[in-house]
Amino acid sequence: MTTNLSYWEKDVYVNNLDVVIVGIGFVGLWTALALKNKHPKLKILMVDQGVVPTGASTKNAGFACFGSITEQLENLKTLGEEKTLEFVKNRYQGIETIKKTFNPKQIDYFNYGGYEIILNDHSQNRNWLQEVTTINSLLSQVLPLKNTYQLKNSKIKQFGFKNVNQLVFTPSEGQLHSGKLLLALKNKVENLGVLCLQNISVDHVVSKRQAVDLCLKNGGILKAAHVVICTNAFTKSLFPKIDVIPARGQILLTEPIPNLKLKGCFHAEAGYYYFRNLDNRILLGGARHKSFTSETTTTIETTTFIQNDLKKFLYDIIIPDLKFKPKIHQSWAGIMAMGSEKTPLIQEIKPRVYTAVRMSGMGVALAPVVGEKIANMFF
Ligand SMILES: Cc1cc2nc3c(=O)[nH]c(=O)nc-3n(C[C@H](O)[C@H](O)[C@H](O)COP(=O)(O)OP(=O)(O)OC[C@H]3O[C@@H](n4cnc5c(N)ncnc54)[C@H](O)[C@@H]3O)c2cc1C
To answer: What lines the ligand 1 site, CB under 6 Å?
Structure first.
């Protein structure tokens, strides 16, 4: 790219770029949409190193969620009340933005709700009814909901789970098709004039007084007035000191299961396991906590150890009484971005260069709000 280009190619793709967004995942695309909505005349180019976006946005589980009850309790301890509430509010708003921007049918959005399953050995003899009441009252400060969480233990038997002590339901979470959402977003921004080029890898970023040079791995240079880095887990290759730690997430998908009762998005063990219905199959992911060392990587591949752990969770906890063991139809991996804090890194890292990274495994709901924040930071 940028070497051996014709006059016309340069004119269309390269000359007079107002903004280059690096990374065509959810964060890059929502940022492009927010910028175009605010400033329709901006010339925006998006680039991605993958032939298809290759990080987390089309590898995830498609939960449009704002956090399980144990996550809220944990956040209160580690982040404090103000940040916990801000976090929940942003994710709730993000889900609302997705629903306002797209027809549910376009992105297979289903409002089946979310559940946290609390396993017998994790219940800690807590008074869950009291925990639910306290958290609901706190969250009502920022959410238009009275009963965000509700105990639904009667459903444990109905779903057929084993070793489960409590089931905490929230009706306001949904599930979607991440591939369809990404495509719909990309079509939307392209219709607004945003240019998208794939298979372009940025090697390093040089910020100058009037512009920013994006030096590409193939030796070319792209010049822009502003640059937004939306490379999430891969950001350390551009800014080695940034507080971003890659975290691989692995998923398996079963073959179709006749009369599958499971419906909704489920979290267990503080979110380290997550599963949902996908058509009439079960999609199950996680188990990173069983091998943090091997899963702290940007290598996009599955491992036997994690896949076996997921299978055990599937057969022992989710469908212990099913008369047959459904086969695993497909497995895959993607890479999330963690750090010493859970909150996204939205900052001007160098003059005219912004980062919108570190979604802590929650980018589906967070990305629309992160995009808005970036768009409000410049121009
Ligand atoms: C297995 C798994 C399950 C998940 N489940 C959920 C879920 O159910 N709900 C939820 O909210 N979140 C979930 N997440 C997290 C969510 O998918 C991410 O938070 C979100 O997709 C991050 O979006 P992003 O745009 O920041 O990053 P990405 O989607 O990773 O996009 C970054 C892009 O940058 C590109 N790139 C990187 N470096 C360069 C470079 N040097 N030059 C050019 N391009 C570059 C990459 O190719 C990539 O396409 C999950 C993640 C995984 C891996």
So the answer is: 22-28, 47-50, 53-57, 59-63, 201-202, 230-234, 237-238, 249, 251, 285, 334-336, 359, 361-365, 367
Query: How many CB atoms neighbour CB 109 within 10 A?
Result: 20
Probe target for ligand 1 pocket from 46, 47, 48, with the most ligand atoms within 8 Å of CB: 48
For residue 44, what pLDDT band results from cuts at 50, 70 and 90?
very high
- As given in the structure block, the two tokens for residue 367 are 């990305």
Is residue 257 very low, low, confident or very high in pLDDT (cuts 50, 70, 90)? Answer: very high
Separation of CA 32 and ligand 1 centre (Å): 16
In sequence order, what DSSP letters do the residues of 272-293 get, joined into one string? TEEEEEETTEEEEEE-GGG-HH
For 113-172+245-338, CATH gives 3.30.9.10
CB-CB contact of 358 with 83 (8 Å) = no
The pLDDT tens digits for 167-218 are 999 999 999 999 999 999 999 999 999 999 999 999 999 999 889 999 999 9
The predicted-structure confidence for 343-355, as pLDDT tens digits, reads as follows: 999 999 999 999 9
Q: How far is CA 342 from CA 85, 118, 268, 273, in A?
A: 13, 22, 19, 18
pLDDT recorded at residue 378: 81
Q: Please give the number of the atom of ligand 1 that sits closest to the Cα of 50.
A: 47
| Dist. CA 193 → ligand 1 center (Å) | 23
Cα of 230 from ligand 1 centre, angstroms: 9
List, for residues 263-275, the tens digit of each pLDDT value: 999 999 989 999 9
Kindly give the number of the ligand 1 atom that is closest to the alpha carbon of 233: 30
* Maximum Cα–Cα distance across the chain: 71
Distance of CA 56 from the midpoint of ligand 1 (Å): 3
Q: Which atom of ligand 1 is nearest to the CA of 337?
A: 19
CATH topology of domain 7-59+179-243+341-377: FAD/NAD(P)-binding domain (3.50.50)
With a cut of 70, say whether residue 2 has pLDDT above it.
no
> SS3 of 203, please?
strand
Q: Where are the domains of the chain?
A: 7-59+179-243+341-377, 113-172+245-338
Average pLDDT of every residue of the chain: 95
Question: Ligand 1, closest atom to CA 48?
Answer: 44
